[in-house]
Amino acid sequence: MNGAALVAIIATIGNLLQGWDNATIAGAVVYIKKELTLGSTIEGLVVAMSLIGATLITTCSGPISDTVGRRPMLILSSFFYFIGGLIMLWSPNVYVLLVARLIDGFGVGLAVTLTPIYISETAPPEVRGLLNTLPQFTGSGGMFLAYCMVFGLSLMASTSWRLMLGVVCIPALVYFVLTVLYLLESPRWLVSKGKMAEAKRVLQRLRGKEDVSGELALLVEGLAVGGDTSIEEYMLGLETEDTEDPTSHKDEIKLYGPEKGLSWIAKPAHGQSQSMRCILSRQGTTVNSSIPLMDPLVTLFGSVHEKQPESGSMRSMLFQNWGSMFSTMDPPVKDDQWDEESVHNEGEGYGTDGGDEYDENLQSPLISRQTTSVSAAAHGGMGIGGGWQLAWKWSEKEGEDGEKEGGFKRIYLHQEPGGPGGSRRGSLVSVPGSGGNVPVDGEYVQASALVSQPALYSKELMSQCPVGPAMVHPSETASSTPMWSALLDPGVSRALFVGVSIQMLQQFSGINGVMYYTPQILEQAGVSVLLSSHGLGSDSASFLISAFTTLLMLPCIAVAMRFMDITGRRALLLTTIPILIASLVILVMSKIMKMGSVIQAVISTVCVVVYFCCFVMAYGPIPNILCSEIFPTRVRGVCIAICALVFWICDIIVTYTLPVMLSTIGLEGVFGIYAIVCAISWVFVLLKVPETKGMPLEVITEFFAVGARASQE
Prior knowledge:
alpha+beta
């Protein structure tokens, strides 16, 4: 985890600068309008120009990052921050200031859009939620530090707004140096461009181990978009030396893992004629089965997250070792090609593999080259994260001419609950209770798996080279697919619907309105009067109050980081959104009912603090986390750019309609609407948002494909 945590911390400095920018402009605008005698329109434009820049850059950030990589775009973000800060430090007039704010907004947009992508693509599944909550933590930390700085400058006899805004170039320079020297490129992006040697080196540094063959194979498998993914059910048994040759039984199948060792014998269970919905209904029998209108996708995801299997059970024995997929194959002539490929081109830096050219060794079969490193792993497990395993099977069927045709199928397997008192249904791999006994010869257990065409043996590649495994890198086939075609894939469309909807609902849930109203609430509570009695001016008191408010967020975000990968994203949302609703409703009631000013101030203050704390724990970071997890590698940048664009547009709408709504329907009406939106959000999360904790990104996208097909049946 150390390598992944280091690059995540470096990447989130951009979010720290975003929070810094939000706080400094809130303080500096007080002095800007006095010195430059700005009207309300220009004043609002100075504040909003950064938001406009972020919106503009977001429209193209995703496709560009898919082309040139995540790392160069994050470096560009630091460059924009630095240049924008220098110009703001110099700004002789409001027009130069507007240009500087626009450039600064470019840095904000790139950081907010690409940091979640980068962290999701580099972090292990087990801690991906924790690391992806870092942007929320650093953003709030940046706001706190900036408010403290603004408060300190406001105490000076002559306060310089140029210094307030321009000082951002110092942390921006640190951000630039760290991204250039220490930030690694995303291994998933490298694999998508065929740069396998560099992807392997990056994975080794991120994971802190030499053997990353299983995860590297997973990244290759994740290049495809869509596909005919299905759930198949088997009766599984361990293959031993005494096991009869499975080829003598036409209903038996042999499963191969990427590790040398034991393989499995599988028999089809329940027949092969069942519909997808029938299988899903069995998978989700114990998960949310009584909730009407529940999306089958949510039920399927939920079935994976039931209690984990007990050690020493039959399932533990079955999943402990995997047979080598290529144990019966002759080794390739050049054994060391996979581990030592492109030795002359490696170098020390990144981006030195000749642009978009593929690794030279990719002229030889990928599967044969993969065999070398995989077979070299005698132990250590080849799990792909979160308890998941990658395996393959060889299937045969009769062609039109009566001859048998064969091909590989890729399988994602997951060790799931069972054992004494365990459930036999409602999980991806459901195994009957065995009392913890080790299976003996002839004993089988029930299991299910996600099955699809592997990227290393895809139909498109085999049509180009009908002999042997794929002779070209699967990224060539993936990149040849039109972007619009990939976006229209049912699984991608379903994921895009979830991502766009949750971003819209988050922005309309009231966070901007509560932030806008917080200084007034704290002033009513008498905080500003107390501070003024100590000699602070009204502006300085306001800055100190804002610093205190942002400080309250930090421990709450730290708690969220702890539980993001334990309770999960969905559970946190379903738990905290009702508290948001209650806080808003109490705020509305306190304004409607005639109470004493002191009682109303106390109630309002408590409600605002509770709202802030609960929002930053879940509804603040989770939409970005989900959007970075649910899209395939091929279209991840484009899809997240779409979601981020919706986020910024909704942010603009809420920001500029809030004053109008306050003047027409009043504070009670505004917070009432926010409470209704939060209630809609809770229903949407319950019915449409799946739980993604601990699952590899490639498995998540396969689940969306399966869920989309199930809904169409």
